[in-house]
Amino acid sequence: MKYRALGKTGLNISEISFGTWGIGGDWGKTDDATSLKALHTAMEQGVNFFDTADVYGGGRSEELLAEATKGKEDEIYIATKFCRQGDIHDPNNYSEATVRAYCEASLKRLKRERIDLYQIHCPAFDILKQGEVFQVLDKLQAEGKIRSYGVSVESVEEGLFCMEQPNVAALQVIFNIFRQKVARELLPVALEKQVGILARVPLASGLLTGKFNQGASFDSSDHRNYNRNGDAFNVGETFAGLPFEKGQELSRELGWIADGKGNMTRAALRWILEHEAVSTVIPGFKNSEQVLDNLGALNVPSFTEEELKKLESFYDQEVHEHIRGSY
Q1: How far apart are CA 265 and CA 298, in angstroms?
Q2: What dihedral angle (degrees, nearest 10) is formed by the CA atoms of 199, 203, 206, 210?
Q3: Which of 3, 56, 102, 149 is catalytic?
Q4: Which one has a higher pLDDT value, 257 or 221?
Q5: pTM for the complete prediction?
Q6: Which of these ranges, 51-55, 214-218, 307-311, has the smallest mean pLDDT?
Q7: What is the CA radius of gyration of the chain?
Q8: Which terminus of the chain faces fewer neighbouring Cβ atoms within 10 Å, N or C?
Q9: Is 56 an annotated catalytic residue?
Q10: Residue 187 phi, psi dihedral angles, 5° rounding
Q11: How many other C-beta atoms lie within 10 A of the C-beta of residue 55?
């Protein structure tokens, strides 16, 4: 395992870490024993950072992390998120009393005294502009409830604004081969300001694994079913904002990236890691096999300059115009 600095937080985290949305239950059926085994597999391989949220399975993924990391609280870092239990457009949802309640509830589920990275979970941009929520987080940080804080954002504009706030230590952004705008407009600023970058949706909800056949379907509890067109939240969180059928077509065109890299999954993760500003990439998982497959990206060769330019042209000419949602 290789480790990278998480911005200016002082933490060095595994360059492949894991998001726990999938084991919370919004990606179809889950099994806690299988989820716990996968978490242990990741830690045995050197993963020391996990991303979660209070709404993943109604707090279930936080509870699973507490169980898996018991006794390792000082060596396994956890990032969690808040605000989406309430109305993300309501200023009262970001008041000190409300945020404190969210924080204390997460601490209780995580069975920890401090959250390593506490993130506002894709809030309304207007709320961020008002600024009060950052003052609340400053207070929680001063009290030792959180080590550092950041924001999970939907758009480059939101990310650039957040980096103007002096104590925002990290940004979580949708970043993958289908979503390259971030690399041009946001990553250079993050590198300059020493703001950590967590790359989420790295496999475009599975599109970049190349495993979906023509008749692929998803469980009713899977957001790839109910949020395919942004009916529940930002469409960019599902298939990176691409219409599913178009995403399948584009994925087939990308089959060549697997050459010499084992499979498309590993190649897609490797592409993200080529960017110096990225602190960690956080693919999801539901079992140990997926954990190990994702970690295989650590051992594949880098892309050549020619290949990187080819992928950039592919994004400009084939992908960009089809992306929907905040970007």
Answers
A1: 12
A2: 180
A3: 56
A4: 257
A5: 0.96
A6: 214-218
A7: 18
A8: N
A9: yes
A10: -60, -40
A11: 18
